[in-house]
Structures are given as C-alpha cells and as structure tokens.
Known about the structure:
Shape: rod-shaped
InterPro entries: YceD
Distance between the termini: 97 Å
Radius of gyration: 32 Å
Organism: Streptomyces triculaminicus
Protein name: DUF177 domain-containing protein
Strand content: 25-35%
Order of helices and strands: EEEEEEEHHEEHH
Mean pLDDT: 82
Pfam families: YceD
Bound molecules: zinc ion
Largest sheet: 7 strands, mixed
Amino acid sequence: MFDTRELGRRPGALKRVSRSVPAPADLGIEVIGVPENAAVELDLRLESVMEGVLVTGTARAPLTGECVRCLEPLEHELDADFQEMYSYPDADARGRIAAADDDAEDDEEELLFLEDDMFDLEPVLRDAVVLSLPLQPVCQEDCPGLCSDCGARLADDPDHHHDAVDIRWAALQGLAGSDQDGEKDNAPRSDGDDSQEK
Ligand SMILES: [Zn+2]
Ligand SMILES: [Zn+2]
C-alpha cells in the first residue's frame, strides 16, 4: 500500500516515490515470472488530479523461467511500465456515471479507488508484469530446442544429428543380434535334448 497524504489534493501536485518491495507469490505466468520475495524496484510518479491520483511508474525485478523450446532455466530482467488512476472514494458517483455512458469502456476499465488516501499497487503491478512478459520465453533468440529423436539440447551440441542410415543400421544390428542369440540359445538345448533321448 502506498500513502498519498503527503501529496495533498491540490491538482497538479507531484511526488516521486522509489521503493523496493518483496514480490508477492505468483507474480508472472506459468513459464516465467518474478520469484516470490525477490526485490521489485518501483519508481512511481504520483500526480494529484481532480478526481484522484494518477500513478505512473516502472517496476524492475529479476525474472526466472524456462526456455519453452529446450526447457533450460533462464534468467531475465523485468522492466514493466504502468499507469493507473486511483479515484477518490467521493468521486465514485461521478466515475460511475461517466463509465455508464459507454458500456465498452465500462467493461474494460475497472475503477480503482484510494482507501484512506492509500492505494494498493498490487493488481496494477500484476497486470503490468504479465503484459510485459514474453509469452514464449527462449534462452536465446534462435534456440534450436531439443532433438526429436533423443531429447538432447541442440544448443549444447550444434552438430548433433542422427543419420537416417545410422538408425536403419542400428535396427539391422538389433535384428541380427537377436537372431544370433536365438540360434545360440536353441542350439545347445536341442543338442542336450538329443543326447538325453539317446
Ligand atoms: Zn532454449
Ligand atoms: Zn538426438
């Protein structure tokens, strides 16, 4: 929660706030996000306007996730911008009427309010973080992913390949091996059976 009392209600008043806060749980998306309790560096500009406080800011934080192609852990830096209007509670009626004029706008914009001159940045931070994250994070722009035959990470081994010939050869060797084994297994047994019968 951030306090706006020092800002005052005179429209045009400005205040800059820099603060480091621990990241809440689940700040991010499934494949990448800010680790819980990691330091989130916030730089905010609070501007007093007629109906409330306009908050403009940036958030910086470490990101951890995994490459969607090769599953390698990766680290990035979050740099998210946001801007949000927090209305005074007594601006409620005015805000509602204005929003009711336009149904589409009403659906998109959910009004946030100051509570006892404080505002909660968390929902705004969450939205900003999710919007700034790559939906498909990769360890490197041209990550070749994993080998579809054996699952090896191709970025570690650029020359990695399986020749079609190799696979067939391996298959033939496998077949030849089992035939030989079969013959070896059968031969002594039939000999033994024969000698016992005699
Ligand atoms: Zn990768
Ligand atoms: Zn392979």
